[in-house]
Every structure is written in C-alpha cells, then in structure tokens.
Design a protein that fits this description.
3-stranded antiparallel beta sheet, Elongation Factor Tu (Ef-tu), domain 3, alpha+beta, coiled coil, 305 residues, 42% helix, 7 helices
C-alpha cells in the first residue's frame, strides 16, 4: 500500500533531436545531378549535388579577360610613352611654331598698312587674333611634349595597380562561386532532407541539403514551471525513449532563459504552471556509442532529474 502511494518523479517531455545544418544554394542555377539520397551517411567533403556551371563559367571568363586588360593597361602606364609618341609631339610643336611665325610675320606686315589706312581695321584685328591663337597652340604643344618626356605620373600607376587588384579579386570571388556549384558535405553526418530535385532551380540561399550532424543526439524537452528552479546546467538526468527499454544517462546542456507559451504578465495564480522553458539534454555515450548514432530524430522522450 505504501508503494502504491509513492509519486512518480517529476519529468520533462520532448523529442530526440540531432544538430541540423543546411547547405544553401550559392547561385540561382538548376540542379544538374544529385549524388546522395535521404538517410544516407556521408563523410566530410563528400559530393552532394552539382549545379549548372555554364553561366558562372562564362562570367568567370569575362572577368579574367577584364583582368588581363587591366594588367596590360598597367604595363602601359609603367613603361610610359613610346619614343614615337614623343617624336610626334615634337613634330607637332615644330609645325605649331612655324604657323605661329607665319602668323606673326603676317601681322607685322599688316600693321603698318593698317596705320596708313590702306587695309581695313578688321583685317588687322583678324591677323592679331590669328597670331595670338598660333602662339597659344605653340604653348599647348610645348606642354604636351613636356608631359610625354616626363613620363607617367606615379598616381596613375597607383590607379592602374588598384584597378588590376580589384579585377583579380573579382576573379577570385567568381572562382569560389564556381567551385561552390559542386556542393560537398561540410561535416560528416546523415542526409535528412533534399527539398529540391534534379532540374529544379532554387533561389540563392535556399537550403538544398539538410544534414543531421554530431556524434550523438540530444533530447529537446520543455521544463515545466515546477521543475525550472530544480534543474541546472550540468545536472545529470535520465532519458527514456518511447519504445526502447532502459534509460540513458544524460546531462543538461543548456536551458533557455525566456519561457515559452504565454508571457508571464498574462498569467496569474495557478496559470503560472503553464510556463515552460526549452532545454537541451545531451546524451552521454556509455559503452556502445554506435547505438546512439543510430537513434532517429523526432522520437518522444521522457527526462527525469
């Protein structure tokens, strides 16, 4: 009779879970092939699926061409102007000086005639303007020649180097994107879900593969209000799986600080017992660790402390 009056220990209910990771779509490309199936165990680095590479490869080729163009432009800046360009500038300066001399001589001949009113004043003015324009052309040709003789400015070389580095960085980023089109497992684990099928085109960032990872699962339970003050992180626990005899040793891994369900200010009196806190109970492998690795996710569990 005394044994029948004993109360069962307070327990928390929940489900068995594994850590989940997703492999997102690096680009909006169609799925060309899938190398795995749901439920398959894979090692880290194992191929999962392959996306179409045609467009990304073409973009990489275009970026590589732009990088080559930037590199040649930098070489041109570093080598400076060619000798032929300098000689052309000198010839242009000589022609400008000859034109200026001719315009100045014509003005010199026209001015006495203008003072004697043998020619119109407008003709003298036009000759003076032509002489001034010719002198300006000479000065412009002289400065152009000096710019070529002094060579490329160091600031221009720096700009060319920066443009080349930017193009190289874009190529490196595109190479990474192209490599990511062949999806591989980031960690060893089991394929839990393949939301898309071959031929589908998922948007960027969409989960293409969902994996269950970790050495062993853990229990995700909800601590009722009467248990919250009695359970601490690191405390030992017993986990019982529905349909499996015996209890598994475990330890409290974490407890959420925010309660679930109704907020505290909406509860009063006995309603406060409806609050619950999400907690994770890590199973401790004892002896047969492989048995824990085969436990499926989603199994109902009961945890006592």
């Amino acid at each position: 009779m005394l044994a029948g009056c004993s109360r069962d220990p307070e327990a928390a209910l929940g489900t068995l879970e594994w850590d989940r990771i997703t492999v997102p779509a690096p680009a909006a490309e169609a799925i060309a092939s899938i190398q795995v199936r749901e439920g398959q165990q894979v090692a880290a680095g194992a191929p999962l699926m392959q996306l179409e590479t045609t467009r990304t490869a073409a973009q990489l080729a275009a970026l590589q061409a732009q990088t080559s163009q930037a590199g040649q432009a930098l070489l041109e800046l570093e080598h400076g102007p060619r000798r032929e360009d300098i000689e052309q500038a000198r010839a242009t300066l000589a022609a400008a000086r000859a034109q200026a001399a001719d315009a100045t001589a014509y003005l010199a001949r026209l001015q006495p005639l203008g003072r004697q009113q043998l020619v119109a004043a407008a003709d003298v003015d036009r000759a003076r303007a032509a002489a001034g324009n010719a002198q300006g052309t000479v000065r412009a040709a002289e400065q152009a020649l000096l710019a070529l003789e002094h060579g490329t400015r160091i600031e221009q070389v720096g700009q060319g180097q920066a443009a080349l580095q930017a193009a190289q960085a874009q190529v490196a980023a595109q190479v990474v994107t192209l490599d990511k089109l062949g999806l591989v497992a980031p960690r060893a684990g089991r394929i839990d879900a393949l939301p898309y099928r071959q031929g589908d085109q998922a948007p960027v960032g969409a989960p293409l593969v969902v994996m269950l990872v970790g050495d062993h699962p853990y229990a995700r339970v909800y601590l009722p209000e009467p248990l919250r003050l009695k359970v601490r992180v690191g405390q030992s626990a017993q986990v019982t799986l529905q349909g499996r005899e015996g209890a598994l040793r475990a330890r409290v891994r974490s407890i959420r600080s925010d309660p679930g369900f109704n907020p505290y200010y909406a509860l009063s009196g006995d309603d406060a017992s409806r609050l619950s806190w999400l907690a994770e109970i890590e199973l401790e492998p004892a002896g047969d660790a492989a048995a824990l690795a085969d436990l499926p996710a989603g199994v109902p569990v009961r945890v006592t402390f």
